[in-house]
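Annotators were shown the component list below and the corresponding predicted structure, then asked to write short factual statements about the assembly.
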Amino acid sequence: MSQRGVSFHWRRYKERYMLLGTKCETCGNIFFPLRSVCPNCRRDGKPSPLALSGRGHVYTFTVIRVASEGFEAFTPYIVGLIQLEEGPKVTSQVVDCRPEEVYIGMRVEVCFRKLREQGKDGIICYGFKFRPADSQAKHE
Amino acid sequence: MSVGRDRFKKREVAVVGVGITPSGEHWDKGLRELTIEAGFAAAGEAGVRGRDIELILVGNMSAGMFVGQEHVAALVADFLGLNPTSAVRIEAACASGGVAFNQGCLAISSGLYDLVVVGGVEKMTDVQGKWATSVLSGAMDFEWEAYFGATFPGIYALMARRYMHEYGLTREQLAEVAVKNHYHGSFNPLAHFRNQITVDQVLTSSLVADPLRLFDCSPISDGAACVILAPAENARRYTDTPIIVSACTQASDTLTLFERRNICTLDATVEAAKEAYQQAKIAPEDVDVVEVHDCFTIAEILALEDLGFCEKGDAGKLYDEGQTYVGGSLPVNTDGGLKAAGHPVGATGVKQIVELVKQLRGDVERDRQVKGAEVALAQNVGGSGATAVVTILRRGN
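Structure shown to annotators:
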């Protein structure tokens, strides 16, 4: 993953910081991430942004032991598909939870975290991760 | 949707020559040497002269990231001495080779070309493993999967975990996929790995992305493969054993795993297979030998179900019974598959075709030859299933 400029990261900040998805007013389907064309309705679709609640459960998960460049410091870390309340799924890390504690069906909620640093001079990337749904109470 | 039946049936396509390099770490060979080796072998077999070649298609995923070289098709034409022949690079991640083959078939069946070279090549070991992992993660959705820390093995691990949860596939059954592929690979002199392994070795190999371990993963390989295509009506000019392309279809699905209808099935494979069986006018039970895209062990399980060889959830049983070995009812990956024979990503789709052509000719080593094979099927996948190509071949008369 080579270094990319600020615009590459900034362009997606609403989706990555606020979990912004898409609702098509024509068919009612909800998508993540943003789509400018509804894959069901295409030209007849009326997609508009929709902030997702960030509540959901773990649909499936893995524990990454061999990371891509830039993620080495986090290993081992949990990556899951999170089934959101509104319907769509997202790929996200699951944090505040040890690898042996995560399970399919675990209730989770979104949180805002650092995703990656690109070396000493590089950009620090932020975005969503998910944590066990009761962990806010536990940590505050 | 995949390519319409009638269009493809316009003119029947035959494979009249094949060539392939060993897969592995070729420290002494670069991308151009590998391509030349496979290309010359194929052209030599078919007795084709350079001036007869009308179109060159090259499947290649990421020469730019692996060796810093773009403009690969022109390079290949140049170093094969084939200028000014038209040359086109085709990229569809790990399905680049399969898509190039599909386009080659269309070029012949359309009537526009009478002799087409389809090559596939990847030079992967000039970079460190970590960088290769990052490059391969570009086969998924970079911004919504890799960006969040998912790796390519990780994405297949997500499928494996969910599939095991829903269908009760055991870790041992998954391991049997790798054990079988290494067994087949041990008889293939061109395979990346020729050692046989045990279930125990798979289960004690290091974890890559739970539940997938090192021996569930195909290796990072260098390699190239090449086939020569001609209209079936001309095939006898080049070979006594033409292999006919009964069908070649391609389908697409969402780039991300998380937007799929069902992550325990590859809808692109299902769609491409449905169309391919219709084109070829056969059913899954008519197939004698199969090459599927086992980039990870779980992928072979999903493929056999999605291709209609058994019901969803039942593929594990085929491995309990040893049915997927040569000599079983459904021999799968007789060259060792991606796991043992190697996975030079851009070459893989073409490499599968080369293996099946040799099987149908009765040309492979005795221990891995499927006796009397008449019909063969290949499935090549890009990324986690956003592209699938299904090809059905049969022995020519």
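Statements collected:
1. The interface with chain A takes residues 130-131, 133-134, 137, 143-151, 153-154, 157-159, 161-162, 165, 206-212, 256-259, 263 of chain B (CB under 8 Å).
2. The mean pLDDT of chain B is 96.
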